[in-house]
Input
Amino acid sequence: MFENRLNYHFKNKKLLLNALMHKSYVKKGATCDNNERLEFLGDSVLGFTVAEYLYKNYAYLPEGELTKIRSIVVCEESLYKVAKKIGLGEEIYLGKGEENTSGRNRPSILSDAMEAVFAAIYLDGGIDSVKEVILNLLKEEIELAKNGADLKDYKTLLQELTQKNGVAPSYVLIKEEGPDHDKTFTSMVVLNGDNLGEGVGKTKKEAEKQAAKIAYQKLQKKV
Output
């Protein structure tokens, strides 16, 4: 049952039905609306929920990084992945044209419907209910986005910070452990001969990024 996969049971089933109604299915003059208005509302509910979660849980990240993470999490690709995972495509009401052209698997249709479902939950159960559903469904996407956005810029940030003093960091691989198929690397970032931080990762690059993050945060505290 879709509501079980969603982990939310509607009190007002008409809201869920409305969220699943694609515009291609709803004929002119029909009594049931399509899901576009709900999609509009769901977009805002989703954006707020993710923004609040990031603000409360990643206090060390600057505004620019938070914005990057949020944009990744709320994008069409992320919503499409979540929609596929819970089988949303099988529940949507589509017109014959969309049905015959693989509409049930189209990223734009599924991501829009996902936002409409979030809005329907908000209207049915309130903000706390929809927050719980969104974070339950998107927590993995948030972590993936956070790790990418969190790490990818720290080497650049560290480089820019140290260049102000006319120096540049260097990275040293200090440990390599595990079998070839499951190695773990430990890297150290060095500045003026000093060890500023060590990072661990499944690749050398990831270990360097982790080390750069630690070094950058350490230097920021001294600024």
Remarks:
- The first strand starts at residue 170 and ends at 177.
- The chain has a mean pLDDT of 90.
- The two ends are 55 Å apart (CA to CA).
- The domain at 154-222 is CATH 3.30.160.20 (Double Stranded RNA Binding Domain).
